[in-house]
Amino acid sequence: MLLSHEKSVEVKNRTGLHARPAAQLVEMAGKYDSKINIIHENREVNAKSIMGVMSLGLVRGSKFTIKAEGEDSEQAVKELVDFVEVELMKEDEE
Fold first, then answer.
1. What is the H or E stretch that residue 94 is in?
2. Which residues are catalytic?
3. How far apart are CA 91 and CA 40, in angstroms?
4. What's the Cα-to-Cα distance from 28 to each of 1, 41, 42, 76, rounded to whole Å?
5. Per-residue confidence in pLDDT tens, the chain, 94 aa
6. Can you give the pTM of this predicted structure?
7. End-to-end alpha-carbon separation of the chain, Å?
8. What is the pLDDT of residue 1?
C-alpha cells in the first residue's frame, strides 16, 4: 500500500519562496524517495524541481499544499512544512 501524506501551509516570511529558499526546499525534498508535489491554485509541481517551485510565485500570504507519496512521505511532509513555517521565519530575523 502506498503511503500518502499532505499538509497545507502558508508563506509568512517577508520575501516569500524566492530563489534561495526555493532552492533549499528543492534540496530538502530531493533527500526523500517519495514523490513530493506542491499544489497551489490548481497547479501541481514537482517539489524536487527548482523551475517548478519557482514558477508558482509563492509570496507572503500564499497558501499551498505539500503532498508526498511513498515510504518516507510522513517525514518528508513534516520536514518541508517545518522549513516553511519555522526556518523561513528565521530569515526575517536576520
1. none
2. 18
3. 23
4. 25, 23, 23, 8
5. 689 999 999 999 999 999 999 999 999 999 999 999 999 999 999 999 999 999 999 999 999 999 999 999 999 999 999 999 999 888 777 6
6. 0.94
7. 44
8. 66
C-alpha cell read off for 75: 517525514
Apex CA 20: angle with CA 34 and CA 73, to 5°?
Answer: 15
Count CB-CB contacts under 10 A for residue 67: 21
Tell me how crowded residue 39 is: count the other CB atoms within 10 A of its CB: 16
Q: How many CB atoms lie within 10 A of CB 76?
A: 25
Cα–Cα distance measured from residue 8 to residue 10, given in angstroms and rounded to the nearest whole number: 7
Backbone angles phi, psi at 13, to 5 degrees: -75, 160
51: which 3 cell numbers? 523551475
Strand duo 63-69 + 4-10: pairing? antiparallel
- How far apart CA 69 and CA 18 sit, in angstroms, is 25
Question: CB neighbours (10 Å) of residue 77?
Answer: 22
